[in-house]
Amino acid sequence: QVPRAPSQPLAGSESRRFTSKHSKKALKASLTLGILLGMFFVAWLPFFVTNVAQAVCDCVPAGFFDVLTWLGYCNSTMNPIIYPLFMRDFKRAMGKFLPCCRRSAEPRPSAISLSMRNSNSGPRAPTSLKNVL
């Protein structure tokens, strides 16, 4: 259930729509998090278990250990693929910076506006030690 303020009563159908909308978002967020954590554990758990076994009995072949290490590295390469598949905000952010992902309707930022934004130049409010602390 979604908590609401007592001063803002919602109609029955509007309340159900509001709850349904937020439950869909929560379900999608849970699914994304579950996939990311599942991929992480599948990729890195064998490496860490084998690492502990290697420290205890020194019985793990070097080639097998290398394969498990590279499995963990593959997980790091999968994250940039998983995030855009499930997160709309991530897609939008990447679309702003990568020309291949930009939509034709979005204006392309000019080099001058990017350099002005990144250079921290321009009008600034006077700062003093009191304002900082």
From TrEMBL:
Keyword Transmembrane assigned: yes
Membrane topology field: Multi-pass membrane protein
Keyword set, alphabetical order: Cell membrane, Disulfide bond, G-protein coupled receptor, Membrane, Receptor, Transducer, Transmembrane, Transmembrane helix
GO cellular component terms attached to this protein's record: plasma membrane
Domain spans labelled G-protein coupled receptors family 1 profile: 1-83
Database matches in Gene3D superfamilies: Rhodopsin 7-helix transmembrane proteins (1.20.1070.10)
Domain of life: Eukaryota
Compartment annotation: Cell membrane
One Pfam assignment: 7tm_1
Transmembrane stretches, start-end: 26-47, 67-86
Gene Ontology BP, a term: adenylate cyclase-activating adrenergic receptor signaling pathway
Region (Disordered): 112-133
GO molecular function, one term: G protein-coupled serotonin receptor activity
InterPro entries: GPCR_Rhodpsn (IPR000276), GPCR_Rhodpsn_7TM (IPR017452)
PANTHER family: ADRENERGIC RECEPTOR-RELATED G-PROTEIN COUPLED RECEPTOR, IP13425P-RELATED
Protein name from the UniProt record: 5HT6R protein
